[in-house]
Amino acid sequence: MPHAPDPEPEPEGARAARRQQFADAARAERPDLALLCLLIGAEADPALDEAGLDAAQIELDRLAGLLPFSPAGGPGAWARNLAELLGTRCGFGGSPADYRRLESSLLHEVLRRRRGLPILLSVVWMEVARRAGAPVHGVALPGHFVVGFGDPAGAHVLADPFAGGRLLTGEDAGLLVAGATGEPLNERMMTPADPLEIVLRVLNNIRAWAQARPEHSAVQLWALELSLLLPSHPARLRHERAQLLVQRGEFLAGAAELEEYARVVEAVEPAGATAIRRQAAAARAMLN
Predict the structure, then answer these.
(1) Shortest CA distance to 231 belongs to which of 262, 196, 190, 259?
(2) pLDDT > 50? residue 7
(3) In the sheet that 146-150 helps form, which strands lie side by side, from edge to edge?
(4) Among the listed residues 129, 125, 153, 148, the one whose alpha carbon sits nearest the alpha carbon of residue 138
(5) What is the DSSP track for the chain?
(6) What is the C-alpha to C-alpha distance for residues 224 and 237, in angstroms, rounded to an integer?
(7) Which residues form the Protein SirB1 N-terminal domain (predicted)?
(8) pLDDT band at 217 (very low <50, low <70, confident <90, very high)
(9) pTM of the model
């Protein structure tokens, strides 16, 4: 099946309004993870309007309503109930083929297809569990996002939504980390991920998907631009955006962005700022 195409051009005002909604949601006192992920999906698919956003939230509510309220057995019972509902009855899960599809990083598509990357499936698990009253948090293991139930500092269990909600032992988690990085599991990796960290990681996945497919540079560009709307993001993303604009033939815009980035880094890395200004001059020269 072909990959999702780049979005069709849409009115600039509609795009600006959606991005303002994303920026406002990211700065809320309690960022709504589902809404932010759905707004990412709307960037990829402008046909996903307010009614579509609402329908996805309603589906998460519906799934949460199918869970038993406050099951006996603590964190383990919550994890098993989620696995039985979402993994077994509803068929949510993933496979290596899902890494090749942009839809695997879009929450509304994951809800429709019931397939996705580990982090998007974890978002489904967390949002359904949270609505049902479960003590749930995301765990951003390197290379493989999973979900935790219970007290992160005390009794808790881990589940892998990509594997249908399979419960993970400490050894299982260590194997996932070793397979991704070659490093042992450490306590820092088990720290609960906050919503904005999760959103940035989703956008990083989309950037990586598009970067490997130059014909989808428009996808890489909007993923970068959404990342830059987050309250906290790596400064290097501005440099990446500027370079991408130049690669796309937007030489003046890219040069202006490079010069602005050079001003940002000059105080801490003057030699780097000089090199970036050379890149800006080279971009402007492409117009001659």
Answers:
(1) 196
(2) no
(3) 166-168, 156-160, 146-150, 136-139, 192-193
(4) 148
(5) -PPPPPPPP--HHHHHHHHHHHHHHHTSSS--HHHHHHHHHHHH-TT--HHHHHHHHHHHHHHHHTSPSS-TTHHHHHHHHHIIIIIIIS--B--GGGGG-GGGG-HHHHHHHSB--HHHHHHHHHHHHHHTT--EEEE--TT--EEEEE-TTSSEEEEEGGGTSEEE-HHHHHHHHHHHHSS---GGGGSEEPHHHHHHHHHHHHHHHHHT-GGGHHHHHHHHHHHHHSSS--THHHHHHHHHHHHTT-HHHHHHHHHHHHHHHTTT-HHHHHHHHHHHHHHHHTT-
(6) 7
(7) 78-204
(8) very high
(9) 0.90
**Alpha-carbon distances, residue 29 vs 100, 128, 255 (angstroms):** 35, 21, 36
What is the maximum alpha-carbon separation in the chain? 72
Handedness of CA 112, 21, 126, 102 (dihedral sign): positive
- Single-letter residue type at 79: A
Task: Dump pLDDT digits (tens) for 123-166.
Answer: 999 999 999 999 999 999 998 999 999 988 777 899 999 999 99
